[in-house]
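Page 37, continued from 36.
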């Protein structure tokens, strides 16, 4: 082997046995470093970088700006960001998994499903998580989830179609009492949070992103500016504030005014403003932590959504129609209300049936059911 191969100098196109120009005897101004060649696919308009999933999620969110509401994009971005971090952890344990969602196969999907089942999540929560993942896969043109759902439908979680529990009168009192026992600003937020959900039936996000200008204490109306399905099927609506909620609002607004004066932030927009940053809205996680404190003190385990169901059930139990309850909850169909939230109790159904039929007094004499009144036949179905 020649001395030049054992101790190579700087490579140039004209070096070697057939060189037509003399070798360089000095170091060139720019030296290309030896080492591994640069990987293809990084950088550039189509490059995925070191984290293809994160890149594709960012592209998906950017493509939906103007089509989805800003609050929906923020929430979806938060959930997809959490999923991206979990998937990175999955890949650390199994380095054979592909990182680019455009190249995912059944192997990657099964790994994701297995990871979700390790959490204490309901089938409904798992189904919601998969919907966000499926949206990204469709965006990148990968039909693997649709294919697997058609081929192995039993592999995937399904939303529960039954109504979750509502809080009883005793549980409601315990929850409100526990919120009263929390001191400081977290206590103020706990009380207005629980009471507003209980007496308006707002969705958690609808209250969390409410503007202080949405509250009208002259006419006692709370305007829902950012409903579910905003920009597509959801319409803003006005919620009437009932008498039981008014003292909670008055107390909170006084505490809020004092806090903003102390911070010099009298023009802060969020209705539920944070003590550390009054101009910022609460995140869902921070409100969940406050709710968890109420659970701990009251001994009642509940979801904020359970307060929404309780609101609908209280409307029905106080003689509101199912249609009114459905409109108040912001549903497009009474079937959603009845299937997932509330329905007339059997005692109420019996009372209304008896009232509608006059407790039997409106039945003309002599029109008894002959099949039932006859005593000379064998018993059976009629």
């Amino acid at each position: 082997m020649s001395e030049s191969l054992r101790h190579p100098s700087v490579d140039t196109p004209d070096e070697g046995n057939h060189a037509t120009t003399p070798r360089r005897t000095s170091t060139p101004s720019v030296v290309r470093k030896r080492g591994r060649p640069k990987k293809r696919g990084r950088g550039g308009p189509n490059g995925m970088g070191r984290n293809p999933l994160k890149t594709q999620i960012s592209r998906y969110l950017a493509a939906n700006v103007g089509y989805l509401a800003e609050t929906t994009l923020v929430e979806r971005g938060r959930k997809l960001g959490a999923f991206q971090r979990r998937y990175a952890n999955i890949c650390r344990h199994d380095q054979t998994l592909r990182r680019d969602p455009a190249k995912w196969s059944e192997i990657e999907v099964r790994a994701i499903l297995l990871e979700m089942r390790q959490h204490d999540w309901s089938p409904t929560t798992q189904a919601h998580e998969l919907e966000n993942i499926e949206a990204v896969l469709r965006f990148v043109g990968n039909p693997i989830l649709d294919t697997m759902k058609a081929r192995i439908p039993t592999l995937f979680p399904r939303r529960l179609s039954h109504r979750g529990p509502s809080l009883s009168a005793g549980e409601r009192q315990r929850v409100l009492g526990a919120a009263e026992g929390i001191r400081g600003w977290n206590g103020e937020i706990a009380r207005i949070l629980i009471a507003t959900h209980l007496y308006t039936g707002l969705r958690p996000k609808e209250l969390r992103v409410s503007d202080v200008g949405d509250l009208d204490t002259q006419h006692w109306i709370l305007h829902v500016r950012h409903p579910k399905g905003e920009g597509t099927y959801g319409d803003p609506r006005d919620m009437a504030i009932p008498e039981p909620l008014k003292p909670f609002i008055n107390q909170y607004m006084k505490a809020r005014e004092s806090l903003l004066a102390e911070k010099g932030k009298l023009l802060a927009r969020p209705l539920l403003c944070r003590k550390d940053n009054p101009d910022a809205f609460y995140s869902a996680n921070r409100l969940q932590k406050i709710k968890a404190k109420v659970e701990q003190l009251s001994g009642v385990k509940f979801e904020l959504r359970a307060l929404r169901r309780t609101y609908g059930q209280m409307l029905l139990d106080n003689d509101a129609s199912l249609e009114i309850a459905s409109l108040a909850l912001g549903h497009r169909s009474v079937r959603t209300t009845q299937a997932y939230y509330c329905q007339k109790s059997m005692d109420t159904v019996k009372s209304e049936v008896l009232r509608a039929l006059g407790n039997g007094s409106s039945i003309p004499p002599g029109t008894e059911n002959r099949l039932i009144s006859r005593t000379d036949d064998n018993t059976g179905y009629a």
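The chain has 16 helices and three strands. Flag for discussion at group meeting. The chain has two domains: 52-155, 169-340.
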